[in-house]
Amino acid sequence: MSDIELDIKLDEKIEHIIAEPPKFKVVFVNDDQTPMDFVVEVLMGIFKHTETTAADLTVAIHSEGSGIAGIYNYELAEQKSIETVNLARANGFPLVVKVEVDE
């Protein structure tokens, strides 16, 4: 084996680029039938906002037409949006909740 020379050269550089997974925002859309008190309760119960923050966010949703309830990974955003819609429907409210990529 001493007669054989092993000459191995690696010219390739392997780069591992690890990207963060995207975040998703849960967006509440304003409507004229869902009471603001109900929206405040949902923001406090499902999204864990304080009463003050939930009330301020509810007013912003009402005045601007929509508002971001929270930003999460996809699975959590989807779960919270489904819980919110199910609770709204169980109480007879047409609340619309969207999950969008946070850019």
Mind explaining what this structure looks like?
The chain has helices at 36-45, 51-64, 74-90; strands spanning 24-29, 66-72, 96-101. It has 103 residues and is α+β, with helices and mostly antiparallel strands. It has one domain (27-101): 2-Layer Sandwich (Ribosomal Protein L30, Chain: A). The chain has a 3-stranded antiparallel sheet. Helix 1 crosses helix 2. The chain is rod-shaped. 19% of the residues are buried.
Q: Can you describe this structure in just a few lines?
A:
This protein has one domain: Ribosomal protein L7/L12, C-terminal domain/Adaptor protein ClpS (Ribosomal Protein L30, Chain: A). It is 40% helix and 18% strand.
Question: Helicity level, as a percent range?
Answer: 25-40%
For the sheet with most strands, the description reads: 3 strands, antiparallel
Determine the N-to-C terminus distance: 59 Å
In CATH, the architecture is: 2-Layer Sandwich
Strand order of the largest sheet: 2-1-3
Classified in CATH, the superfamily is Ribosomal protein L7/L12, C-terminal domain/Adaptor protein ClpS
